[in-house]
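Changelog excerpt

This revision adds worked examples to the README so contributors can see how folded entries look when concatenated. The first example is reproduced verbatim below.
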Amino acid sequence: MSCYIRHMKDFLSDLDIEPETKEERKEVDLAIRNAICKKSTDKCNEVWKELKIWLDDTQKKKKLQSNLMNF
């Protein structure tokens, strides 16, 4: 499911997103996958690999932040 959420605590906290329950983490996971054009069936490590690229690219990171602010 959301193996990478724990690595994004600071990033998500800056957006006032603090998932506490398993269901909330799943919702955040799906929102992130949607934002970076990954499927819900993609393996967690594949999503995390792509997500790290997004977090390292300033424009992609801003786009991700914008998509998640509506979460």
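The second example, added in the same revision:
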Amino acid sequence: MYGLIWRMLPGGTAVKLCGTLILIGVTAALLWYVVFPWAEPRIPLDRVTVGS
């Protein structure tokens, strides 16, 4: 899959590397600011059920 993305990006090695870094940054920002805040209330990670 990564090879496919690398071959689809235009330009030489430097341009492909910059494009890859931009894609990684956009993906991380999308996850951090959109997906994780949406999913956090739906995932019971901090609800402790042990005790009385």
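Reviewer comment on example two: The chain has a mean pLDDT of 87. The two ends are 49 Å apart (CA to CA).
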